[in-house]
Design goal:
- With 731 residues, the chain is an alpha+beta fold.
- Among the domains are: 237 residues, Aldehyde Ferredoxin Oxidoreductase,  A, domain 1 (4-Layer Sandwich), CATH 3.60.9; 190 residues, Aldehyde Ferredoxin Oxidoreductase Protein, subunit A, domain 2 (Orthogonal Bundle).
- The protein contains 27 helices and 18 strands.
- The strands form 4 sheets. The chain has a 7-stranded mixed beta sheet. A 6-stranded mixed beta sheet has the order 3-2-7-4-5-6, sandwiched between helices.
- Strand 17 and strand 18 form a beta hairpin.
């Protein structure tokens, strides 16, 4: 503490949170070491709600209006906010924060949701959001003390010997900033690792201290290179020291009603979770086996949807194996106080196999489904100990496991088809299944060395590089390189799900499943067969899931533990044709009541959707302001997301594809596999175009993919600057 140079300091008055809001935001400029406190107006709360809405509004006003800002520009911002419902300790899943910035991968706004204690602690320390702009000359720490009422920007001196590795740095800073052992629980650290300085896949770790293990665990804001921006700004860490958290901390308008709703939902989870997905025992670790059985598990760069040799059978990532990997009596932790889902799992005593920590036995936070699928099956790796190894190093190096998984899977296929060879990879033999070479590549990414320096720039960059330097076929690498808008795909095989293709392709930020996870309703339940059905779902579900990111809530309590009344609802509304059961109606009503009780704003389910539609549409227009966000940017999915690219892919499902073509009226007798692939491709690409038309119409966007002036007026966001941005793209 004494060795840190205080570059700027601001004292502020401690105030109680009112109806879920601190009613202030914190602005930090690292170029000139300015600290400002900004008020939150009623209009800001009514229009943008909180969480991602606050982040976007702060960035909208904070970025220069007269030019397109790039991710490395000092004017780019990182914003973090929870939301009015975030931080409640009696309602499950109330610990989420949303982080936004301009992504080094996509050049548009990326938003990433994350657990851990920082977002709620920030609010209880006095701020609904933090907005960070500028670049420091040397590493700095931003410290928010919600007990003393002080914000500081501190220089980091060489003599401090703070680790570059995130898991070590988090422990060091938790120790340093806690007044005693008991107070460690009041410290939350946000940090990244060395790889964020050398790649576009940098992520952020958000910590919380677990007394029983004497360890600060972390959840990750992984997507889109947010950690890369963090490192570029030379932020060593954000630290928040929070006042004591109680049931009154969020100060709901109606505490008794809010607690009643929270207790009822908690009791439901305790009763039903052991009978359903066992989120507390195995969490998202229950998913790989289900995905494999349903042919939806990404395998060998999404060529297949299951382990080829044991399709339809249990895999080494089945529920029982994952249960044995996770530590602790119940298997998991809550990443926020009082969350009975407790799906944040960890593995204790992993003996590190490679790299700078080889031979040490350490705690690994995870692995979660996306890591298991991305860095396991998608690499053709079927040994859980190696998934733990990848998980550990990605976390401490500050790397997004989804981009690492999908990116290295692309590299492996390029190696197997001859685009790459050992000479081009610096001696690495990157075949599917060669996890040790993949690990060496991760170590190179962390150091910015060798072939890893190229890979860490992302698939979009690698596509151009492999064409220019190695003579790769541009169409082939486009077809198999699983990125869209520059963001690597999350881990679901979408070939047979047009709705999930839309869920990935029509997102505001790139192919991340948190906007619309429709693959089961589309493929398994076949409950949205028509374009109209899919379009309705692709309007509702991105909006509904956005609502959680406005309010500071986790989506898992909504859909991973379902009430017994769920079976009483029809799959679809007979009048409107919209999905009913997939919405989990009783839980939606529960959230309506809870939002009303906390904020004092009496709401309906339509009100919640309207909140999201304003922010979702606003984000779309923000993308247009940044030079993207139109139809052309939603088009051109890598074809592997749509259908089979290679002979091997087609022939692995030849009976399925041949049957489909026959049922569609195509005459395929005597045709070669290449000819059948071409016929199928023309048909499926045309289907995606028609889906775009239907979804744009349903969302109130024109065929340019631009929100209409009529829509923004209806939503109450018809500000002059918004009209100026969208006017040139009206039909």
């Amino acid at each position: 503490m004494k060795n840190k140079l205080i570059l700027a300091e601001k004292k502020y008055e401690i105030r109680e949170v009112q109806k879920g809001y601190a009613n202030r935001t914190l602005f930090i400029n690292l170029t000139n070491n300015v600290i400002q406190i900004k008020p939150v107006s009623d209009d800001m709360k009514n229009i943008f709600i909180g969480g991602k809405g606050f982040d976007l509004w702060l960035m909208w006003n904070g970025l220069p209006q007269n030019r397109i800002v790039k991710w490395k520009d000092p004017e780019n911002e990182i914003c973090i906010s929870s939301g009015p419902l975030g931080g409640s300790i009696f309602y499950p899943g109330s610990g989420k924060s949303i982080v936004t910035t301009i992504s080094p991968l996509t050049d548009i706004i990326i938003d990433s949701n994350v657990g851990g204690y920082f977002g709620p602690y920030l609010k209880f320390s006095g701020f609904d959001a933090i907005e960070i702009q500028g670049k420091a000359q040397k590493d700095v720490i931003v410290y928010i003390d919600g007990i003393e009422g002080i914000v500081q920007i501190k220089g980091v001196e060489d003599s401090e010997e703070l680790s570059d590795y995130s898991h070590e740095l988090t422990q060091q800073l938790t120790e340093q900033y806690a007044q005693d052992d008991h107070e460690k629980q009041r410290i939350s650290v946000v940090s990244t690792g060395p790889a964020a300085k050398h790649s576009n896949w940098g992520m952020l770790n958000f910590s919380w201290y677990v007394p029983g293990r004497n360890w600060a665990s972390s959840k990750q804001a992984g997507r889109g290179g947010i950690g890369t921006v963090f490192a570029d700004k030379k932020i060593k860490a954000l630290i928040c020291r929070s006042p004591k958290v109680s049931i009154n901390s969020n100060n709901p308008a109606n505490l008794e009603e809010a607690r009643k709703i929270g207790i009822a939902h908690t009791q439901e989870i305790i009763k039903l979770d052991p009978l359903q997905n066992e989120m507390r025992q195995v969490g998202t670790g229950h998913l790989p086996d289900i995905m494999n059985v349903t042919d939806l598990l990404p395998t060998e760069n999404y060529r297949f949807g299951a382990h080829r040799e044991i399709r339809g059978k249990e895999i080494p990532y089945n529920r029982e194996i994952m249960r044995s990997i996770y530590s602790g009596k119940e298997g998991g932790d809550g990443c926020w106080i009082g969350c009975t889902v407790s799906c944040s799992h960890y593995s204790e005593g992993h003996e590190v196999l490679t790299g700078p920590f080889k031979g040490q036995k350490l705690i690994v936070d995870g692995p979660e489904y996306e890591t298991i699928a991305g860095c396991g099956s998608n690499w053709g790796v079927w040994d859980p100990k190696w998934v733990l190894e990848v998980n550990f190093y990605c976390d401490t190096y500050g790397l997004d496991t989804i981009s690492v998984g999908t990116g290295i899977a692309f590299v492996m296929e390029c190696f197997e088809v001859g685009i790459l060879n050992k000479e081009r990879t610096g001696g690495l033999e990157l075949n599917f299944g060669d996890v040790e070479s993949a690990m060496e590549l991760i170590h190179q990414i962390a150091k910015g060395e060798g072939f890893g320096a190229i890979v860490g720039k992302g698939i979009k960059y690698m596509k151009h590089y492999f064409v220019e330097k190695f003579g790769a076929d541009p169409q082939f690498v486009q077809d198999i390189g699983m990125e869209h808008k520059g963001l690597e795909f999350s881990e679901y095989v979408t070939k047979e799900s047009l709705a999930q293709q839309g869920g990935y392709g029509l997102t505001n930020k790139g192919p991340q499943h948190d906007e619309a996870w429709l693959i089961f309703d589309d493929v398994i339940r076949n409950s949205i067969p028509t374009f109209e059905d899919k379009a309705k779902a692709l309007r509702y579900f991105p909006l509904w899931r956005t609502w959680f990111s406005l309010c500071g809530l986790c989506k898992l309590p909504w859909n991973d533990i379902q009430p017994t009344s769920q079976a009483d609802y029809p799959i679809k509304d007979p009048k409107t044709g919209e999905l009913v059961r997939a919405k989990i109606p009783d839980h939606v009503e529960n959230y309506v009541k809870y939002y009303s009780a906390v904020t004092g704003n009496q709401s309906t389910s339509n009100n919640l959707i309207n909140m999201s539609e304003r922010v979702y549409t606003f984000q779309r227009i923000f993308n247009i302001r940044l030079g993207k966000g139109l139809r052309e940017n939603d088009s051109n999915l890598p074809y592997r997301a749509v259908g089979p690219v290679t002979l091997l892919e087609y022939e692995s499902r030849s009976e399925r594809y041949d049957t489909q073509l026959k049922e569609l009226g195509f005459k395929i007798k005597g045709k070669s596999t290449e000819e059948k692939i071409k016929i199928l491709r023309n048909y499926r690409e045309d289907q995606y175009v028609k889906l775009q038309d239907a979804v744009y119409l349903e969302r109130g966007w024109n065929q340019n993919g631009c929100p209409t002036i009529e829509l923004v007026k209806k939503l109450g966001i018809d500000f002059d600057e918004i009209i100026d941005i969208i006017a040139p793209f009206q039909e």
